Amino acid sequence: MFNENLTLPFLVSLDEIPHLWQHSDALIFLVDLNDYDTLNTGYLSSIELESLARLKTSYFKRRYIISRTVLKRILCKVTGERSASGISTYKDRNGRVCILNNSELYICISYTESVAVLAVSKVEIGIDIELEKKLALKSNLKDLSMKLLSTDEPISDTDLLKIWTLKEAYSKFSNNKMHLIFNKELDLSSVNYRTFILNEKYILSVITSSKSHTININRLHRIDFNYA
Questions:
Q1: Is 90 exceeded by the pLDDT of residue 136?
Q2: Counting beta carbons within 10 angstroms of the beta carbon of residue 157, is it exposed (0 to 12), middle (13 to 18) or buried (19 or more)?
Q3: Please, are residues 91 and 102 in contact by the beta-carbon 8 Å criterion?
Q4: Which of 7, 15, 82, 106 is 20 to 30 A distant from 75 in Cα terms?
Q5: Structure confidence at residue 9 (pLDDT)
Q6: Pairwise CA distance, residues 109 & 204, whole Å
Q7: Torsions phi, psi of 83, nearest 5?
Q8: Secondary structure element (H or E) that encloses residue 27, with its range
C-alpha cells in the first residue's frame, strides 16, 4: 500500500511561516493541543462564537478555540493581516471550513486525540489524520466495501485505516458528505494523493488536484499569545 514514512523532529515558529509559504503550495502544521490551556474566545468572530455555542462538550469546545486561534495566527503570517481578530472562518453548508471574504486560500482541519492538523493552501486540499492504534474504534470498516484499488489482494488493518483517511480527505477535498462516499470504491484517478506515516504513530492523508504540488509538513512551535 502507498505511504511515505516521515519523521518530524523539528518545530517551526510563526516567524518561519512566510518563508515556507513562499516555497510551498500547501503548508500543513501539527499542533499539540496539550501545549495550550483553553484560550479565551477574544479572537473568535461572531460567526465562530455561534459555531462554538453549538458544540456539546468541553472537549470539542476546547479544541475548536485552540485550533481556530492558532490557525488565525498562521493566516496572519501568510496574508500579512496584522490582527488575528480581523480574520473569520466559517463552515459552508457541506461542512467545508472557509475564510470569510477570502476565496484565494484554502484551509482544512483534522483532529486525532490531542493533535490538531491545520492546512493552509494555495490549491484545494483535503486532509485527515488518525492515530494508528485507533483502528479498533472503526471496526465497522471491515464490514464495508473499502477497496481503494481493484484488487483481490487481502487488505491489512493498517491499509484499511489508510483508506479511511483517504476517504475522509477526499470528502473534504471534494466538499461531499462522508456518508456519500463511505461505502463506495474511491476513484482517485483525477487527484493527487499522498499518505504519510508520521513518527511511526500517525497516518496522514493529503489530497489535492491532479497536478503535483509542493506540500510542506511541520510541527508548529507553541505560540506564546502574550507576545504573538
A1: no
A2: middle
A3: no
A4: 7
A5: 63
A6: 12
A7: -115, 130
A8: strand 26-32
Number of C-beta neighbours around residue 161 at 10 A: 22
Taking alpha carbons only, the member of 114, 119, 113 closest to residue 89 is 119
pTM equals: 0.90
Report which of 94, 33, 42, 113 is spatially closest to residue 72, judged by C-alpha positions.
42
Q: How far apart are CA 216 and CA 117, in angstroms?
A: 13
**Number of residues that this document lists for the chain:** 228
pLDDT tier, 8 (very low <50, low <70, confident <90, very high otherwise) = confident
Pull the grid cell for residue 203. Answer: 497516518
Give 170's strand partners.
none
Which DSSP symbol is given to 102?
Answer: B
The backbone torsions φ and ψ at residue 14, rounded to the nearest 5 degrees and listed phi first, read: -60, -40
User: Strand runs (DSSP E) across 63-178, as ranges?
Assistant: 89-91, 97-99, 106-112, 115-121, 125-131
Q: What is the residue whose three cell numbers read 496539550?
A: 34
In terms of C-beta density within 10 A (0-12 exposed, 13-18 middle, 19 or more buried), how is residue 208 classed?
buried
